[in-house]
Design brief:
Elements lengths: L15 H9 L6 H5 L5 E4 L14 E14 L9 E7 L4 E7 L13 E10 L6 E4 L2 E4 L19 E4 L8 H15 L9 H6 L5 H9 L7 H6 L3 H27 L10 H9 L6 H15 L5 E6 L5 H14 L3 E5 L3 H15 L6 E4 L5 H9 L4 E4 L13 E6 L7 H8 L6 E6 L5 H7 L4 E5 L10 E6 L3 H13 L3 E5 L14 H11 L5 E4 L5 H12 L5 E4 L12 E7 L6 H8 L10 E6 L4 H12 L3 H12 L1 H5 L18 H17 L7 H11 L10
Length: about 700
């Protein structure tokens, strides 16, 4: 018998090579994967109701025998198929219905014993019970020839319900998981130090693993379904502790490394500050002070700068880059897309053109001729995409790395860029407001500063939601703003119209605005226009010769135009909250009242929630919270990025308190014993969790 957690799932009783290939679709390849493929729901089948005792508008589990299974086609809608199954348990009849799923006819047969779980409703004819689209299970499916020994896991108890793939039934999956749990659990060692277990009165690991799969009591049914039972909390704690230990080890290793101790005289930074038409805010000055203190330290800086749209992160980063340059080092800024990298290049080039610095752009499409300048040291500031971390890119003396849109890059990608220099300082920027505890989860190896103050004389932006029939109101707003001397952004989701989509496009939009406003100059900017042309267009817009700038999201990060007072976003329902917030931040940069118009052509529920939040608030943190709630933390942070292990049990929104505790214990452990030599099981747990990223675990 193979009991190693890394053994192939095919060795679990009842699996074999064919089912192993099905399980692989669910990400289950090893015994460990199986153990942590947790149920997504639990049913209380210890109290299955008789059909005669059912009540309307209640979730219930019912078992019975199939009396009839038919496909019905309503006479008025012949292409619309309804599959109906009638069951009885001897006390009454219950009808189950599925819409446009005729393939179910192959699954349900007369005489089968079945289990249904769902909301009981009154039949539309006004008599009898029915369930629409219930969860179902065929009771007399046989997993193994002699499966009677595990029949007790399918009924008469709290029953786990797992996510499936085609070819596996719920009953088969449950039997496989029971075999996996029963086989492996006796051989599991608890990696968490006993003093931590006692301190927080954590349940036993083996007991927890068993009870998240096959709960022995209905006592915690609601907690089980919310993922907050004591057993779920134990597994969440273990996962977050392991995650934080990795981050603590990285941070400890970086502190121990020797970095660059910069000794700036402030000459270049002073010249830039004297050229700026504004003064830094108190928050910008405070954060810049944090950065300069880090840069003067002999340890490598690793700092996350968080600031809402328009708070002035870029100028703080630029002043930091000038500090490195005046000390004789190169600075590199990495952005996730060519468009963003080019926008940074345009902005920085414009701000620094009087200082005589050599600024270069390196992207996938603009590469070879820049490499020699970077390697020779002829380039002072290099702005680029992930092309910066590819082989063949050599820096002469890289001193500072600035990373924008941090959630697009993982720990590993940051580490690769750092290896291009000799432990250069790293500054990471985000315009996505993130609750502090969640930021510490993903970026726990970083120090943390917030620019929490907008420049003075900024009026809050008023946001209005319009529908297609209200387009004339938008034209009136554009006319009003331009008459007052204001300028307008109009953002489209795509560049050109296509047969594949009915979305409105920028090129067509520009022509429509030219016809509607022949006395105004309408400009067009998008990602296919060359960077130098884009720079010229943005200059024209900034100096006021373009009144309406039609664009794609290329202007999400762009030049400050204080005179731009109206932002119109076409098909606003197609944009994410963070992107809408970024786009809105392009206006409201002067002292005049600004407006943002969201034009929607119909929206699903999630999109309606996004648009409602945008109308209600301009608070980036509130928007971030709502974005997390709507999308969930995995998609919000992009935790599948290179370098970040996936969280399979813990939920960053639900388990904030557990996260804080795990972080405190992890950092205390690494401080006390950096190599974890006395905790071999815990070290193995970290290696398993972080996988190939273990090179970052710098305690060896």
């Amino acid at each position: 018998m193979q009991n190693d957690l890394t053994s192939s799932v095919q060795y679990i009783k009842g699996v074999g090579p064919r089912r192993a290939s099905l399980l692989a679709r669910l990400g289950i390849q090893t015994f460990r994967d199986a153990l942590f493929h947790l149920p997504y729901r639990y049913e209380d089948r210890s109290s299955i109701k008789k059909i005669a005792h059912l009540k309307y508008d209640e979730l219930n589990t019912v078992t019975g025998k199939v009396v009839k299974a038919d496909i019905i086609s309503p006479s008025r809608r012949p292409k619309f198929k309804i599959f109906e199954v009638l069951i009885t348990d001897g006390s009454g009849l219950l009808k189950a219905k599925w819409f446009n799923q005729p393939y179910l006819k192959r699954i349900f047969k007369q005489g089968q014993e079945v289990v249904f779980y769902g909301m009981v409703k009154l039949n539309y004819r006004g008599a009898g019970f029915e369930i629409i689209n219930p969860e179902y299970e065929i009771i007399d499916e046989i997993v193994e020839e002699n499966s009677s020994d595990i029949d007790h896991i399918h009924t008469g108890r709290i029953v786990p319900v797992y996510r499936l793939t085609e070819g596996l039934s719920q009953r088969q999956m449950r039997s496989i998981m029971y075999s996996a749990v029963s086989t492996v659990i006796p051989f599991i060692s608890d990696p968490v130090p006993s003093e931590i277990i006692k301190k927080y009165n954590l349940p036993d690991l083996r007991e927890s693993l068993y009870n998240v799969h096959f709960p022995e009591s209905a006592l915690y049914l609601d907690d089980l379904n919310r993922g907050v039972s004591p057993y779920h909390q134990r597994l969440s704690f273990d996962e977050l502790l392991t995650f934080q230990l990795g981050l603590a080890a990285i941070k400890k290793g970086e502190i121990a490394e020797k970095g660059i101790s910069f000794s700036p005289d402030g000459r270049l930074a002073g010249r830039l500050l004297s050229n700026l038409p504004f003064k830094l805010t108190g928050a910008q000055e405070r954060v810049l002070k944090d950065i300069l203190k880090d840069m003067q330290s002999p340890s490598p800086m690793n700092r996350l700068i968080q600031g809402d749209v328009g708070s002035g992160k870029t100028i703080v980063a630029l002043l930091s880059m000038l500090t490195a340059v005046e000390c004789g080092y190169q600075s590199a800024l990495m952005a996730p897309t060519e468009i963003l990298a080019e926008q940074h290049y345009i902005n920085i080039h414009g701000l620094l053109e009087d200082l005589g610095l050599r600024i270069h752009l390196l992207t996938g499409s603009k590469r070879n001729k820049e490499l020699e300048s970077i390697a020779s040291g002829d380039a002072d500031i290099i702005i680029g995409t992930h092309a910066l971390i590819q082989e063949g890119v050599t820096f002469k003396n890289l001193g500072l790395i600035v990373i924008d849109e941090q959630h697009r890059f993982g720990v590993m990608q940051r580490a690769v860029l750092r290896k291009k220099g000799t432990n250069p300082d790293t500054l990471i920027m985000t315009a996505t407001p993130i609750p502090r505890t969640l930021a510490l989860t993903l970026y726990g190896d970083l120090d943390y500063s917030v620019i929490d103050e907008l420049p003075p004389n900024r009026n809050p932006i008023t946001t209005i939601l319009f529908y297609e029939k209200q387009k004339n109101h938008i034209y009136e707003l554009i006319e009003d703003e331009t008459k007052k001397g204001g300028q307008v952004y109009v953002v489209y989701p795509i560049i050109e119209e296509s047969d594949k989509t009915n979305l409105k496009a920028a090129v067509t939009g520009m022509k429509a605005f030219q016809q509607r406003f022949p006395y105004l100059k309408v400009g067009l900017i998008h990602g296919r226009i060359k960077p130098l042309e884009r720079e010229e267009i943005m200059k024209e817009f900034k100096n006021g010769s373009i009144h309406i700038l039609v664009s794609t999201t290329v202007i999400e990060v762009g030049v400050d135009v204080p005179n731009a007072t109206l932002m119109v976003i076409i098909h606003a329902e197609r944009f994410g909250l963070a992107q809408l917030h970024q786009l809105r931040g392009r206006v409201g940069r002067g002292s005049n009242q600004s407006h943002c118009v969201l034009l929607t052509y119909g929206a699903a529920d999630d999109a309606k929630r996004r648009l409602a939040v945008m109308v209600e608030t301009t608070d980036g943190f509130r928007i971030a919270d709502e974005d997390l709630n709507i999308r969930g933390p995995g998609e919000f942070f992009g935790t599948r990025q290179s370098g970040m292990p996936d969280l399979r049990v813990a939920n960053l929104l639900r388990d904030v308190k557990i996260l804080e505790t795990a972080r405190k214990e992890a950092f205390a452990l690494i401080e006390k014993e950096p190599t974890l030599a006395n905790y071999p099981h815990l070290r193995k747990s970290i290696e398993d969790f972080w996988g190939k990223r273990i090179e970052l675990f710098k305690t060896a």
